[in-house]
Design brief:
The complex is a heterodimer of chains A (215) and B (593).
Chain A (H helix, E strand, L loop, with lengths): L1 E5 L3 H13 L3 E6 L2 H11 L3 E5 L9 H12 L4 E6 L4 H10 L4 E5 L6 H12 L3 E3 L1 H8 L13 H12 L3 H8 L3 H15 L7 H14 L1
Parallel strand pairs in A: 1-2, 1-3, 3-4, 4-5, 5-6
Helix pairs in contact in A: 2-3, 3-4, 4-10, 6-7, 7-9, 7-10, 8-9
Chain B lengths: L1 H5 L3 H22 L10 H4 L4 H20 L4 H20 L6 H10 L3 H12 L6 H24 L23 H32 L2 H30 L8 H44 L5 H10 L5 E6 L4 E3 L5 E2 L8 E8 L2 E9 L4 H78 L3 H28 L2 H6 L1 H11 L4 E5 L7 H20 L5 E8 L2 E8 L9 H9 L3 E5 L5 E8 L2
The chains are: A alpha/beta (215), B alpha+beta (593).
């Protein structure tokens, strides 16, 4: 797998590069701002770009904007957006247009290289990756008349994994059950929450996240 | 005059009649053949007396008319005119070959002169302690009336030794009684003397007890009044000494001249006082009107623009503290650089320049400065002070806004520093530790690997804490994605259920959204502290305003929200808390352009 890393803080960038290198992943380019990132992507056509959300000049959401641009212009290049903020809003913005091949991870999660590699691989496979902390935050929102109260504990677990972007197969592996069981659970959940069960995994991530926000 | 005739009442009618009578009387004098009275009247005897006699009478008539025309006290005007009739009455008495009725009426009317003059002086020097003089005036009238009318009834001119050769007619003669007639005659002379003394006494007392402006105002009447008193006194004394009033006697002529002159000065004095009072009233009315017109900001500007016919006229006021000119809204104006064809004329008050009028060239600035007048200067000073206050208020408001904005910027800076500084370092540390842990595992040092793993755990915990801290200082998403996104995050993190109703299609300025966020954040914290179980947040837009409402169901008393009031007030908004049944409601309106 070929990867480009973009982060304006050298310390973090080099840390990530070393982690990836250690895991045997080829880093074909390093960028310090969105412009350079887009140039490198255009030049090297990596499989995935690892992008910090906050970059010059305004240090607000350049990374997010660049991620959306990359998905738009280079459909074969996935993007993982790294952020220090637990902000579901950013994740939703990322997913809105092109939910496949994108991921939103907390930077600190990346220290566990396995997590990063796993995310990269999933994105390479065309899936969506949402940091569990984001999902937990959304699930943990206090609601009066909680619509999630109708779900069982297991169903909540499945729901959170769906929100993280895992495929049915991945969920089954995580919970040590069969694919069939997972499908049944999902059917139940979506029925209880009155959500349209969309065939594509990415669309359903968006649906669940939006639902969790609105509820 | 037209509306006077239309709205007739009895008083006006009476005045009108008196006016007509007096004027008719004066005209009749001119027309009547008087040549046939060679020495029965002073005018016939001595050419010297023609002018003073005429002038005195005309003076009384004219001042009476003036008083009435200027809307002064009708009584004074009427008295002056009736006095002119009494002054000229001796003409009819001395009219050789004239109609007897006229001569007889003249004889009855003439003695009233002193009483009339006394009344005139008393009436035109309005005094609060009028009771006593009034009594004396009435008394003088009464004596004159009784004596004059009585004399008319009993005096037979033929039998009167003190009457002149042409003294023939008395149509009122009822029964001749020379002794009674003589007594009544004496009474009349005594009344004249007494009246003169009373007038003198009044003048002295009035002048003596009056102070400053009161005395000055009435001096013009009281001094002539004293002269009249002296002249009438002389006349009375002369009559007592020589009852036969001879027109060829120089002493009598002299007295007559004195009387004429005194009465003329009195007439002038009365006219002067009335005109002066009217002028003062007029200028006060003008001033009051000018001040009333120039109350609002720009009132003076509008008045001047109208007066000069220059709609683009501007008035700018000098603020000494900031050494600049400002217009009526408090905005600074550069008077050194004016548009083409416009010039600046200063308004000066007390030697100091207080304002400048910017108008079209071609207006004579000297006459403009003069014509602006005291009222305009006063209005200009007033508006200048208002402009000063408005400038200060604007400065204060701007300062408040800046203070809040600076504090918010500082917070954002802190958050950014944390993000870019300590948080990054901890992240880097966590990566290093991870690598070290992997290396330890590879090198077969499980104990070390575990220890490093624990250190990693602490690092992550520290990162969590820092993230919370940074978010509390300033939620980065507020600046980056705006109020709706920040409020969603607020709801994510809230410890109690929040219902949100956010209707915000247009963004508001950063300061407004930041303040709205902190108001909502604090309101929710307060609700939690007070034991609320749920809250509702509403954000919507009204005309030029962002409306924020937070309602909770906490039963306890609301807390002190002064800092929120200040924050909202700094942007020119309002914050109000109320207690609808079952909870607490906070409502804020923040200007949103």
């Amino acid at each position: 797998m070929r990867v480009v890393v973009a982060d304006d803080v050298m310390l973090t960038r080099e840390g990530i590069v070393r982690l990836l290198g250690d895991a045997g992943i080829e880093v074909v380019g390093q960028a310090e701002d969105a412009g350079e990132l887009l140039r490198l992507v255009a030049e090297h056509r990596p499989d995935v770009a690892v992008v910090d959300i906050r970059m010059p000049p305004t240090h607000t959401d350049e990374g997010l904007v660049a991620a959306v641009a990359i998905r738009e212009t280079f459909p074969d290049t996935g993007v993982v957006v790294l952020s220090q903020y637990i902000e579901p809003s950013y994740a939703l913005r990322l997913l809105e247009e092109h939910p496949e091949r994108v991921g939103y991870l907390l930077k600190e999660r990346v220290f566990d290289v396995a997590v990063l590699i796993d995310a990269l691989r999933r994105i390479f496979d065309g899936e969506t990756v949402i940091d569990p902390t984001i999902v937990a935050r959304l699930l943990g929102r206090k609601r009066s008349g909680d619509p999630l109260a109708a779900l069982t504990a297991r169903e909540r677990e499945v729901l959170s994994l769906v929100a993280e972007g895992l495929t049915n197969r991945a969920i089954a592996e995580r919970l040590y059950v069969t694919d069939r069981t997972v499908e049944a659970h999902i059917g139940q959940i979506f029925g209880k929450l009155d959500l349209d069960e969309s065939p594509s995994a990415h669309r359903r991530v968006l649906a669940v996240l939006v639902f969790l926000r609105r509820a | 005059m037209a509306d006077r005739i239309v709205s007739i009442d009895r008083r006006r009618m009476g005045l009108l009649v008196i006016c007509a009578l007096a004027i008719a009387h004066a005209l009749a004098l001119v027309l009547a053949p008087l040549r046939s009275a060679p020495f029965a009247v002073y005018v016939g005897a001595s050419k010297l007396t023609i002018l003073p006699d005429t002038v005195a009478g005309i003076g009384l008539l004219a001042s009476g008319l003036l008083v009435i025309a200027l809307g002064g006290r009708g009584r004074v005007g009427a008295l002056a005119m009736v006095a002119s009739i009494a002054w000229w009455a001796p003409f009819w008495v001395g009219w050789e070959g004239g109609a007897p009725i006229v001569r007889s009426v003249g004889l009855v009317v003439a003695p009233f002169l002193v009483a009339l003059l006394l009344d005139l002086v008393v009436s035109s020097t309005a005094w609060d302690r009028r009771r006593r003089p009034q009594v004396i005036v009435i008394g003088t009238y009464a004596v004159a009336a009784v004596a004059s009318l009585g004399r008319a009834l009993v005096r037979d001119p033929f039998l009167d030794l003190n009457c002149g050769s042409n003294c023939r007619d008395n149509v009122f003669l009822l029964f001749p009684d020379p002794r009674l007639a003589a007594t009544l005659n004496w009474l009349l002379e005594a009344a004249g003397l007494f009246g003169a003394i009373a007038l003198m006494a009044y003048v002295i007392v009035r002048l003596g007890t009056a102070t400053g402006p009161d005395r000055r105002a009435h001096l013009a009447v009281l001094v002539p009044g004293a002269l009249v008193a002296l002249a009438e006194l002389a006349y009375a004394v002369a009559l007592f000494r020589s009852p036969l009033e001879g027109a060829d006697d120089p002493a009598f002529v002299g007295v007559f001249l004195a009387r004429s002159i005194a009465i003329t000065t009195l007439a002038i004095g009365i006219g002067w006082v009335v005109v002066k009072a009217r002028m003062t009233a007029d200028s006060v009315v003008r001033l009051a009107r000018a001040l009333a017109a120039a109350t609002g900001p720009g009132g003076l500007r509008d008045a001047l623009a109208r007066a000069l016919g220059d709609p683009a006229l501007r008035v700018v006021y000098w603020l000494p503290q900031t050494a600049e000119y400002v217009d009526e809204t408090g905005a600074a104006v550069d008077t050194a650089r004016l548009p083409a064809g416009r010039v600046a004329t200063p308004i000066v008050r007390g030697g100091e320049r207080i304002a400048v009028v910017i108008h079209q060239s071609g207006v004579d600035t000297e006459s403009l400065t003069r014509d602006i007048g005291a009222a305009a200067r006063l209005a200009a000073e007033n508006e200048r002070l208002q402009a000063e206050v408005r400038t200060q208020i604007a400065d204060l408001q701007a300062s408040r806004r800046r203070i809040v904005a600076t504090a918010d910027d500082h917070r954002r800076g802190l958050e950014r520093d944390l993000h870019d500084g300590a948080q990054q370092r901890l992240l880097a540390m966590s990566y290093e530790l991870r690598l070290a842990q992997a290396a330890a595992e590879r090198d077969g040092l499980p104990g070390l690997a575990i220890a490093i793993g624990r250190a990693s755990g602490e690092t992550l915990a520290a990162l969590d804490d820092l993230r919370e801290l940074a978010h509390g200082i300033f939620p980065a998403i507020l600046a980056e994605a705006g109020l709706p996104a920040a409020l969603e995050t607020l709801a994510d993190r809230s410890v109690m259920p929040l219902q949100m109703s956010i209707e915000l299609d247009h963004r508001c300025p950063v300061a407004t959204e930041t303040t709205a966020y902190f108001v909502i954040d604090e309101a929710i914290r307060s609700a939690v502290r007070r034991g609320a179980t749920s809250a509702w947040v509403g954000v919507s837009r009204s005309v030029g305003l962002l409306l924020v409402r937070v309602e909770d169901d906490a039963p306890a008393q609301a807390e002190d929200l002064t800092h929120l009031v200040d924050r909202v007030g700094a942007l020119g908004g309002r914050l109000v808390g109320t207690w609808p049944p079952g909870g607490y409601s906070l409502r804020a309106e923040i200007p949103c352009a």
